[in-house]
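Usage example:
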Amino acid sequence: MNEINPGLLIILGALLVPVLPGLLRSAYMLALPVAVFLYLLGLPMGELGQFEMFDMTLTTLRIDKLSLIFGYIFLLATFIGVIYALHVGDWLQHTTGLMYAGAAIGAVFAGDLITLFVCWELTAIASVFLIWAAGTKSAHDAGMRYLIIQVASGVILLAGIVFFYRETGGIAFNAIGIDTLAGKIILVAFGIKCAFPFMHNWLQDAYPEATVTGTVMLSAFTTKLAVYALARGYAGTDLLIPIGTVMTAFPIFYAVIENDLRRVLAYSLNNQLGFMVVGIGIGTEMAVNGAAAHAFCHILYKALLFMSMGAVLYRVGTVKGSELGGLYRSMPWTAGFCMVGAASISAFPLFSGFVSKSLIMTEALKGGYFYVWLTLLFASAGVFHHSGIKIPYFAFFAHDSGKRCKEAPMNMLIAMGIAAFFCIGIGVYPAPLYAILPYSVDYVPYTVEHVVTQLQLLMFSALAFAVLMRTGIYPPELRSTNLDTDWFYRKLGYNVGSTLLLLGGDAVKFVAAQGGNAFRVFERRLHFHHNPDGLFGRTWPTGLMAFWATVMLGGYLLVFYFR
Amino acid sequence: MVDKSETDNPNNNPHNGGHQHFETPPHERTWIDNPKNVDKIVYALYAVCALLVVIDFWVPKHGPFAIEHWFGFYAFYGFIACVGLVIAAKGLRVILMKPENYYDE
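Running the assembly step on the lines above writes:
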């Protein structure tokens, strides 16, 4: 019989989580991604799990090198996410978190667009519970906005698939391109999930509102699933190069002035996606390798950074830069892990970002994309500035806030330790990562030129930070909300809607009043006859009932007699 | 596993304010709390930066763009990029920054 998609195994496996008690549940959740990983290792390459439905061939499981690398990292992220959340007692978060991960894994191994669509929507629906579980009103509202936008992405994808089927007569998910209408529509769907500029704000809106553990899961899957889908469908699409370039640059301005440190990370997540999108847009084998490698490393160091800030939120109760400072005393391990993540995202030599981002940078250089390369370099310096320095500095050092707390729980430290191990391990010894990339790699990251130029870039960014801090030019962390594209629907759209409602209000009131009157008359009559003393409501003597029943039966008799 | 609420430290009210004035008690001070040692770190950074620029003389460059071959391009660009970034972002606050409860009203 057909092989089963590993994602489906995780989704089905997640259904057992609610019924298992305490320690057994923890053990089960840890074992699930490991077991599925071993199962995945045993699967052959190729298109599996095929069956016919409505004259269409569904390929529910396609295993090649591109899907495998995303499958591996998603399973690793699931494993780390489970460890990080072990202290949480809420079964709903565990179940939906695993289903979300399973759906993302299922989507990566989907060989056709229908399977992709089903998984695409399931990631949206399952993941919103990780936001709502935070339990605050702002989390509820942000979750609603997130769900609407994510489901919209799925609906647009479905519309694109319909066009695609009409144009090509098939639903196989391979290179799509933007030459056809279907290709354009599907790119919009992917673009929303990948947080393209002006479609991005659901990310910065919702991720920082999710639970401590939920944000870690969220940071790994949704956007990287979109990166995978772009790499599969749109590699070499020139349009992606300017889109990705803008993505690397503009979020970092927000990241510098944002006060909520998890939101800073959401902006830098967006910036890192830009590097991958540029790589996919360049589209050479090495550039796609770079996008996949960077997605792999990025999931680990971004999860690590979110885990460290999550630990701070868990212990201190806030991750606002304006309220924090000096926490290295209370949380030395968390601070250390945070700095490993910061060094990795900044692409310091010997850390993971260095060996993956340079694949993309080199291809931009080779391809002669001068302004793209210049912007990516600017974004590289900027990401060190706001993620590499600002996050650890304002949380763990800076001015002592006087806050004292316990170190993060042991399970959180273990999860951070595993992620940190991979961040350093990949940076020091990149060969295993290069071996699982979609195409063969002929690249040496550690050359004198590369190491020295990268250190120059980073050290002078650090110098800029030091100079700006000591001269007082660096903007202080302030309690604030920074306007982003969500303003258009949260403020402008809301105000326009309210005004329209006010204007239309009179008409609505009139109709409602008329309707209300009619209903009240009906209600009054109903009440008149059916109230306890009403004709149909009161109790009647049994004898009277028997009398009328007899009269009625007599009536029948007469009717039948004369018929 | 212990079931805990989302944040387990109710004593840390973010609105208690006044942390600006907090002075670290002497017995909690460490090496890095001494401003002189912070100076040392910054001077070490200056030295590292200077060294990185000096060795640029001997580093072979292979890129296709002429600008990359300029002396100390990466160093200069990294510094200018970050200063520009921060000053631009600071300026953007004028337009973008609203009170924290902006959307709640």
